[in-house]
Protein backbone atom coordinates (compact mmCIF):
# COMPACT_ATOMS: atom_id res chain seq x y z
CA UNK A 1 0.00 0.00 0.00
CA UNK A 2 1.26 3.50 -0.71
CA UNK A 3 2.47 5.68 2.11
CA UNK A 4 1.13 9.21 2.56
CA UNK A 5 4.65 10.45 3.31
CA UNK A 6 5.91 9.12 -0.03
CA UNK A 7 3.03 10.66 -1.96
CA UNK A 8 3.49 14.05 -0.31
CA UNK A 9 7.22 13.97 -1.07
CA UNK A 10 6.82 13.03 -4.73
CA UNK A 11 3.81 15.11 -5.62
CA UNK A 12 4.10 18.03 -3.26
CA UNK A 13 0.48 17.49 -2.28
CA UNK A 14 -1.16 19.25 0.63
CA UNK A 15 -0.97 16.92 3.70
CA UNK A 16 -4.30 18.35 4.87
CA UNK A 17 -6.07 17.31 1.65
CA UNK A 18 -8.84 14.73 2.22
CA UNK A 19 -8.01 11.11 1.43
CA UNK A 20 -9.64 9.02 -1.27
CA UNK A 21 -9.15 5.60 -2.79
CA UNK A 22 -8.97 4.25 -6.33
CA UNK A 23 -10.02 0.72 -7.24
CA UNK A 24 -10.51 -1.38 -10.35
CA UNK A 25 -10.21 -4.75 -12.05
CA UNK A 26 -7.71 -6.28 -14.48
CA UNK A 27 -9.26 -8.23 -17.37
CA UNK A 28 -7.72 -10.44 -20.07
CA UNK A 29 -8.86 -9.17 -23.47
CA UNK A 30 -7.48 -12.26 -25.21
CA UNK A 31 -9.82 -14.46 -23.13
CA UNK A 32 -12.90 -12.31 -23.55
CA UNK A 33 -12.49 -10.20 -20.42
CA UNK A 34 -11.69 -12.91 -17.89
CA UNK A 35 -10.33 -11.51 -14.59
CA UNK A 36 -6.56 -11.79 -14.09
CA UNK A 37 -5.44 -12.87 -10.63
CA UNK A 38 -2.00 -11.90 -9.35
CA UNK A 39 -1.45 -9.17 -11.95
CA UNK A 40 0.94 -6.37 -10.97
CA UNK A 41 -0.67 -2.93 -10.96
CA UNK A 42 1.39 0.25 -10.86
CA UNK A 43 0.11 3.64 -9.76
CA UNK A 44 1.59 6.89 -11.12
CA UNK A 45 0.74 10.44 -10.10
CA UNK A 46 1.77 13.98 -10.83
CA UNK A 47 0.74 17.48 -11.82
CA UNK A 48 1.09 18.95 -15.33
CA UNK A 49 4.08 17.00 -16.56
CA UNK A 50 5.65 13.58 -16.11
CA UNK A 51 3.75 11.16 -13.91
CA UNK A 52 5.95 9.41 -11.34
CA UNK A 53 5.38 5.91 -9.93
CA UNK A 54 4.25 6.15 -6.32
CA UNK A 55 2.97 2.67 -5.44
CA UNK A 56 2.17 -0.80 -6.74
CA UNK A 57 0.02 -3.75 -5.74
CA UNK A 58 -1.26 -7.07 -7.14
CA UNK A 59 -4.78 -8.16 -7.97
CA UNK A 60 -6.70 -10.60 -5.80
CA UNK A 61 -8.28 -13.87 -6.93
CA UNK A 62 -11.05 -11.95 -8.69
CA UNK A 63 -8.65 -9.63 -10.49
CA UNK A 64 -9.47 -6.61 -8.30
CA UNK A 65 -7.07 -4.01 -6.93
CA UNK A 66 -7.36 -0.95 -4.68
CA UNK A 67 -5.12 1.95 -3.66
CA UNK A 68 -5.98 3.63 -0.33
CA UNK A 69 -5.13 6.99 1.24
CA UNK A 70 -4.59 8.97 -1.96
CA UNK A 71 -4.70 12.77 -1.54
CA UNK A 72 -7.78 14.13 -3.33
CA UNK A 73 -6.07 17.33 -4.42
CA UNK A 74 -7.58 19.01 -7.52
CA UNK A 75 -4.25 19.44 -9.32
CA UNK A 76 -3.08 15.83 -8.95
CA UNK A 77 -3.60 13.35 -11.81
CA UNK A 78 -3.54 9.59 -11.17
CA UNK A 79 -2.77 6.89 -13.73
CA UNK A 80 -2.91 3.19 -13.00
CA UNK A 81 -1.65 0.42 -15.30
CA UNK A 82 -1.23 -3.35 -15.27
CA UNK A 83 1.70 -5.49 -16.42
CA UNK A 84 1.42 -8.78 -18.32
CA UNK A 85 4.10 -10.76 -20.16
CA UNK A 86 6.50 -7.81 -19.93
CA UNK A 87 4.09 -5.29 -21.45
CA UNK A 88 2.54 -2.38 -19.55
CA UNK A 89 -1.12 -1.52 -20.21
CA UNK A 90 -2.05 1.94 -18.87
CA UNK A 91 -5.59 2.91 -17.98
CA UNK A 92 -7.35 6.29 -18.02
CA UNK A 93 -6.09 9.36 -16.20
CA UNK A 94 -8.33 10.38 -13.31
CA UNK A 95 -8.64 13.10 -10.68
CA UNK A 96 -9.88 12.16 -7.22
CA UNK A 97 -12.70 13.76 -5.31
CA UNK A 98 -13.15 12.67 -1.71
CA UNK A 99 -16.85 13.54 -1.81
CA UNK A 100 -17.48 11.54 -4.98
CA UNK A 101 -15.10 8.59 -5.57
CA UNK A 102 -14.53 7.68 -9.24
CA UNK A 103 -16.10 4.51 -10.65
CA UNK A 104 -13.95 1.36 -10.71
CA UNK A 105 -11.28 1.32 -13.41
CA UNK A 106 -11.07 -1.50 -15.94
CA UNK A 107 -7.55 -2.34 -17.09
CA UNK A 108 -7.44 -4.63 -20.13
CA UNK A 109 -4.33 -6.73 -20.79
CA UNK A 110 -3.58 -9.24 -23.55
CA UNK A 111 -1.54 -12.38 -23.97
CA UNK A 112 1.73 -11.88 -25.86
CA UNK A 113 2.99 -13.69 -28.97
CA UNK A 114 6.59 -13.65 -30.22
CA UNK A 115 6.09 -15.04 -33.74
CA UNK A 116 4.84 -14.74 -36.41
CA UNK A 117 4.14 -11.05 -36.74
CA UNK A 118 0.45 -10.18 -36.69
CA UNK A 119 0.96 -6.72 -38.20
CA UNK A 120 -0.52 -5.70 -41.55
CA UNK A 121 -0.79 -2.38 -43.36
CA UNK A 122 -4.30 -1.41 -44.35
CA UNK A 123 -2.91 1.56 -46.26
CA UNK A 124 0.55 2.70 -47.35
CA UNK A 125 0.94 6.11 -49.00
CA UNK A 126 4.24 7.35 -50.45
CA UNK A 127 4.37 11.07 -51.32
CA UNK A 128 7.38 12.32 -53.31
CA UNK A 129 8.15 15.99 -53.84
CA UNK A 130 11.17 17.51 -55.59
CA UNK A 131 12.71 20.17 -53.33
CA UNK A 132 15.75 21.76 -54.97
CA UNK A 133 18.49 19.15 -55.24
CA UNK A 134 16.77 16.54 -53.02
CA UNK A 135 13.61 14.46 -53.05
CA UNK A 136 11.40 14.82 -49.99
CA UNK A 137 9.58 11.55 -49.34
CA UNK A 138 6.74 11.22 -46.80
CA UNK A 139 5.36 7.79 -45.98
CA UNK A 140 2.08 7.24 -44.14
CA UNK A 141 1.04 3.80 -42.95
CA UNK A 142 -2.17 2.69 -41.28
CA UNK A 143 -0.88 -0.27 -39.27
CA UNK A 144 -3.24 -2.84 -37.82
CA UNK A 145 -2.97 -5.74 -35.41
CA UNK A 146 -6.28 -7.51 -36.06
CA UNK A 147 -5.70 -10.23 -33.46
CA UNK A 148 -6.51 -10.31 -29.74
CA UNK A 149 -2.86 -10.74 -28.77
CA UNK A 150 0.09 -8.36 -28.40
CA UNK A 151 2.96 -8.91 -30.82
CA UNK A 152 6.26 -8.55 -28.91
CA UNK A 153 8.85 -10.13 -31.23
CA UNK A 154 11.37 -12.87 -30.52
CA UNK A 155 13.43 -11.96 -27.45
CA UNK A 156 16.38 -14.16 -28.45
CA UNK A 157 17.03 -12.10 -31.58
CA UNK A 158 19.30 -9.07 -31.13
CA UNK A 159 18.34 -6.38 -31.50
CA UNK A 160 14.74 -7.17 -30.59
CA UNK A 161 12.67 -6.00 -33.57
CA UNK A 162 8.92 -5.89 -34.02
CA UNK A 163 8.90 -3.73 -37.17
CA UNK A 164 11.60 -2.92 -39.72
CA UNK A 165 11.18 -0.28 -42.43
CA UNK A 166 13.28 -0.76 -45.58
CA UNK A 167 13.97 2.87 -46.49
CA UNK A 168 15.82 3.39 -49.83
CA UNK A 169 19.60 3.60 -49.50
CA UNK A 170 21.06 7.04 -49.04
CA UNK A 171 18.17 8.36 -46.95
CA UNK A 172 18.85 11.14 -44.46
CA UNK A 173 17.12 13.49 -42.02
CA UNK A 174 14.35 11.13 -40.94
CA UNK A 175 11.62 12.79 -38.86
CA UNK A 176 8.45 11.26 -37.42
CA UNK A 177 5.12 13.04 -37.15
CA UNK A 178 4.73 11.99 -33.49
CA UNK A 179 7.33 12.13 -30.74
CA UNK A 180 6.43 8.65 -29.47
CA UNK A 181 7.48 6.92 -32.69
CA UNK A 182 10.45 9.26 -33.10
CA UNK A 183 11.83 8.07 -29.75
CA UNK A 184 11.22 4.39 -30.46
CA UNK A 185 12.65 3.95 -33.99
CA UNK A 186 16.38 3.63 -34.65
CA UNK A 187 18.54 3.40 -37.79
CA UNK A 188 20.22 -0.02 -38.07
CA UNK A 189 22.04 -0.99 -41.29
CA UNK A 190 20.12 1.44 -43.49
CA UNK A 191 16.79 0.43 -41.98
CA UNK A 192 14.47 1.92 -39.36
CA UNK A 193 13.70 -0.62 -36.63
CA UNK A 194 11.72 -0.61 -33.39
CA UNK A 195 10.94 -2.94 -30.50
CA UNK A 196 7.50 -1.45 -29.78
CA UNK A 197 4.99 -4.08 -28.58
CA UNK A 198 1.98 -3.85 -30.89
CA UNK A 199 -1.31 -4.18 -29.03
CA UNK A 200 -4.54 -5.09 -30.83
CA UNK A 201 -5.85 -2.09 -32.76
CA UNK A 202 -4.79 0.43 -35.41
CA UNK A 203 -1.89 2.88 -35.52
CA UNK A 204 -1.07 5.85 -37.76
CA UNK A 205 2.64 5.91 -38.56
CA UNK A 206 4.01 8.86 -40.56
CA UNK A 207 7.61 9.86 -41.26
CA UNK A 208 9.61 11.96 -43.74
CA UNK A 209 13.11 11.53 -45.15
CA UNK A 210 15.25 13.00 -47.95
CA UNK A 211 17.02 11.37 -50.90
CA UNK A 212 19.68 12.93 -53.17
CA UNK A 213 18.76 13.36 -56.85
CA UNK A 214 21.42 11.02 -58.22
CA UNK A 215 21.01 9.44 -61.66
CA UNK A 216 19.06 10.34 -64.74
CA UNK A 217 16.48 8.96 -64.93
CA UNK A 218 16.13 8.94 -61.16
CA UNK A 219 14.73 5.70 -59.72
CA UNK A 220 13.24 5.11 -56.27
CA UNK A 221 12.57 1.51 -55.28
CA UNK A 222 10.78 0.69 -52.01
CA UNK A 223 10.04 -2.87 -50.89
CA UNK A 224 6.88 -3.27 -48.80
CA UNK A 225 7.57 -4.34 -45.23
CA UNK A 226 4.13 -5.80 -44.48
CA UNK A 227 1.22 -7.32 -46.36
CA UNK A 228 -0.60 -4.22 -47.60
CA UNK A 229 -4.20 -3.75 -48.72
CA UNK A 230 -3.81 -0.44 -50.57
CA UNK A 231 -0.60 1.18 -51.84
CA UNK A 232 -0.72 4.76 -53.12
CA UNK A 233 2.10 6.79 -54.70
CA UNK A 234 1.71 10.54 -55.27
CA UNK A 235 4.28 12.79 -56.91
CA UNK A 236 4.84 16.50 -57.36
CA UNK A 237 8.09 16.77 -59.27
CA UNK A 238 7.94 20.34 -60.50
CA UNK A 239 9.10 20.64 -64.12
CA UNK A 240 9.94 16.98 -64.51
CA UNK A 241 7.77 15.89 -67.38
CA UNK A 242 7.80 12.12 -67.10
CA UNK A 243 7.10 10.03 -63.99
CA UNK A 244 6.25 6.34 -64.18
CA UNK A 245 5.36 3.76 -61.54
CA UNK A 246 4.64 0.03 -61.53
CA UNK A 247 1.19 0.78 -60.09
CA UNK A 248 -1.90 1.73 -62.12
CA UNK A 249 -2.36 5.45 -62.82
CA UNK A 250 -5.18 7.27 -61.00
CA UNK A 251 -6.75 10.72 -61.23
CA UNK A 252 -4.59 13.68 -60.24
CA UNK A 253 -5.34 16.23 -57.54
CA UNK A 254 -4.40 19.89 -57.13
CA UNK A 255 -1.53 19.12 -54.76
CA UNK A 256 -0.46 15.88 -56.45
CA UNK A 257 -0.57 16.10 -60.25
CA UNK A 258 0.68 12.52 -60.58
CA UNK A 259 -0.96 9.63 -58.75
CA UNK A 260 -0.75 5.83 -58.79
CA UNK A 261 -2.60 3.22 -56.72
CA UNK A 262 -2.76 -0.54 -56.42
CA UNK A 263 -5.83 -2.36 -57.63
CA UNK A 264 -8.03 -4.68 -55.56
CA UNK A 265 -6.28 -7.33 -53.53
CA UNK A 266 -3.57 -7.32 -50.87
CA UNK A 267 0.05 -6.99 -51.95
CA UNK A 268 2.50 -9.34 -50.17
CA UNK A 269 5.44 -8.14 -48.11
CA UNK A 270 8.63 -7.79 -50.13
CA UNK A 271 6.90 -6.54 -53.28
CA UNK A 272 8.93 -3.63 -54.68
CA UNK A 273 7.23 -0.34 -55.55
CA UNK A 274 9.26 1.40 -58.27
CA UNK A 275 9.02 5.07 -59.25
CA UNK A 276 11.07 6.49 -62.14
CA UNK A 277 11.58 10.22 -62.74
CA UNK A 278 12.71 11.07 -66.27
CA UNK A 279 14.69 14.12 -67.44
CA UNK A 280 15.68 15.25 -63.98
CA UNK A 281 17.17 18.76 -64.38
CA UNK A 282 20.67 18.85 -62.94
CA UNK A 283 21.58 21.84 -60.81
CA UNK A 284 23.78 24.59 -62.37
CA UNK A 285 26.47 23.87 -59.80
CA UNK A 286 26.61 20.27 -61.00
CA UNK A 287 26.96 21.42 -64.63
CA UNK A 288 29.70 23.88 -63.68
CA UNK A 289 31.66 21.26 -61.79
CA UNK A 290 31.71 18.78 -64.66
CA UNK A 291 32.44 21.46 -67.27
CA UNK A 292 35.41 22.70 -65.26
CA UNK A 293 36.69 19.14 -64.93
CA UNK A 294 36.36 18.57 -68.69
CA UNK A 295 38.29 21.75 -69.49
CA UNK A 296 41.05 20.79 -67.07
CA UNK A 297 41.40 17.33 -68.61
CA UNK A 298 41.56 18.84 -72.13
CA UNK A 299 44.28 21.29 -71.09
CA UNK A 300 46.37 18.55 -69.50
CA UNK A 301 46.01 16.32 -72.56
CA UNK A 302 46.92 19.17 -74.96
CA UNK A 303 49.99 20.15 -72.94
CA UNK A 304 51.20 16.54 -72.84
CA UNK A 305 50.80 16.19 -76.63
CA UNK A 306 52.80 19.36 -77.36
CA UNK A 307 55.63 18.27 -75.06
CA UNK A 308 55.75 14.88 -76.71
CA UNK A 309 56.06 16.36 -80.20
CA UNK A 310 58.80 18.76 -79.11
CA UNK A 311 60.77 15.96 -77.53
CA UNK A 312 60.48 13.80 -80.64
CA UNK A 313 61.81 16.60 -82.89
CA UNK A 314 64.59 17.77 -80.56
CA UNK A 315 68.21 17.31 -82.04
CA UNK A 316 67.03 16.57 -85.59
CA UNK A 317 68.27 18.96 -88.40
CA UNK A 318 66.49 19.07 -91.72
CA UNK A 319 68.40 17.37 -94.60
CA UNK A 320 67.37 19.44 -97.62
CA UNK A 321 68.80 18.63 -101.12
CA UNK A 322 68.21 21.43 -103.61
CA UNK A 323 68.07 20.81 -107.39
CA UNK A 324 71.25 21.58 -109.31
CA UNK A 325 69.66 24.51 -111.06
CA UNK A 326 68.88 26.10 -107.71
CA UNK A 327 72.43 25.86 -106.34
CA UNK A 328 74.32 29.12 -106.02
CA UNK A 329 77.44 29.54 -108.21
CA UNK A 330 80.44 31.88 -107.79
CA UNK A 331 80.00 35.50 -108.84
CA UNK A 332 82.23 35.97 -111.90
CA UNK A 333 81.31 39.59 -112.26
CA UNK A 334 82.89 40.37 -108.94
CA UNK A 335 86.09 38.51 -109.83
CA UNK A 336 86.33 40.22 -113.22
CA UNK A 337 85.87 43.55 -111.51
CA UNK A 338 88.78 42.84 -109.29
CA UNK A 339 91.00 41.86 -112.25
CA UNK A 340 90.18 45.00 -114.14
CA UNK A 341 91.13 47.14 -111.20
CA UNK A 342 94.43 45.39 -110.82
CA UNK A 343 95.31 45.53 -114.45
CA UNK A 344 94.63 49.17 -114.64
Overview in brief:
This protein has 344 residues and is of the alpha+beta class. It is built from four helices and 23 strands.
SSE diagram, text form:
Layout: H1 4-11, E1 19-28, E2 34-35, E3 40-46, E4 52-58, E5 64-71, E6 77-84, E7 87-94, E8 105-109, E9 112-113, E10 120-131, E11 134-145, E12 150-151, E13 163-165, E14 172-176, H2 179-184, E15 185-187, E16 192-194, E17 201-212, E18 218-223, E19 228-236, E20 242-245, E21 249-250, E22 258-261, E23 272-278, H3 284-313, H4 332-343
Parallel strand pairs: 1-8, 9-12, 10-19
Antiparallel strand pairs: 1-2, 1-5, 3-4, 3-6, 6-7, 10-11, 11-17, 13-16, 14-17, 15-16, 18-23, 19-22, 20-23, 21-22
Largest sheet, spatial ordering of strands: 14-17-11-10-19-22-21
Beta-strand proportion: 35-45%
* Rg (C-alpha, Å): 41 Å
Task: Examine the secondary-structure arrangement and name the CATH architecture of the largest domain.
Answer: Sandwich
Shape: elongated
Classify the fold: give the CATH topology of the largest domain.
Immunoglobulin-like
The helix-and-strand class reads: alpha+beta
Secondary structure tally, helices: 4
> CATH homologous superfamily of the largest domain?
tricorn interacting facor f3 domain
Which class of the largest domain in CATH terms?
A: Mainly Beta
Helix and strand run: HEEEEEEEEEEEEEEHEEEEEEEEEHH
Instruction: Look at the structure and give the mean pLDDT.
Output: 82
Amino acid sequence: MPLIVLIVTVLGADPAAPDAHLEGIVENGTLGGAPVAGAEVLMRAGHDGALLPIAKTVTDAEGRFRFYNLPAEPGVIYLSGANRHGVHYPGPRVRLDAAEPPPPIRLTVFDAVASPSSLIAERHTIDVRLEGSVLEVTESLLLSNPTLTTYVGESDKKPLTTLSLSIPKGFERVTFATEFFGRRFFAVENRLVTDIPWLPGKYELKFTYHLPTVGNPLTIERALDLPTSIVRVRANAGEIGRVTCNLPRVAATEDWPLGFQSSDGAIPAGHAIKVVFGDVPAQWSTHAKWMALAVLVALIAGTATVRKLRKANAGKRPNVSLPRACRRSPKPAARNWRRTRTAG
